[in-house]
Write the structure tokens for this entry.
Amino acid sequence: MSETNTLDLPVYFGVKAGMTRIFDENGNHVPVTVIKLIKNLVSQVKTKENDGYEGYQIAFGEKRESLVNKPLKGHLAKAKISSFLTKFSEVKVSDVDVNALGKEVSLGAFQPNTYIDVTGVTKGKGFQGVIKRFNFQGGPAAHGSKFHRTTGSIGNRATPARVYPRKKLPGHMGDEVQTVQNIKVQEVNLEKGYLLIRGSVPGAKNGFVRISKSVKK
């Protein structure tokens, strides 16, 4: 796609392909996360006149046509997008361009050594006990203790005669939106369609991640 049909934004959505390692020019071992580059297209332009604020709606996550309903197809057709994208997110910016509809989001804001924040959904662990969920120590391992991996006492006698809110108890673990801040872009390869980020980022393999310019750098 030509540069006239691209738009620089401080946000990009990719797919976590997994982790590997590389060696820098000094021979140092660097663990990196591989992000697969996917289409990010502007599917709607938000204006103060129509929406009360300015921004862009970004479409990504392509599926086959049979999995996309008619209202969604109409929304994409209005933006002159031929791909069947099913994920949407908004980016607030000032001074929007109404002619940006249908343009592809570029990676101009994410050059090597740029500091970024990465947001993803952590791996779901299901229902877990307090030892796995909160790193509780647990009880003695001896046969007669009868207290090994359970929660232990959670009450406060007759006063206040209730369990305090947010008490650490067994429950659902993981599957939460999490952001890792101030990590560096190691490499951007547009020809092969990948981006390397130093270190690890939240989420499982093949999950979507949100890459944005760091807010603290």
Summary: The chain is about 10% helix and 40% strand. Helices lie at 48-51, 70-78, 130-134. Residues 126-173 form one domain.
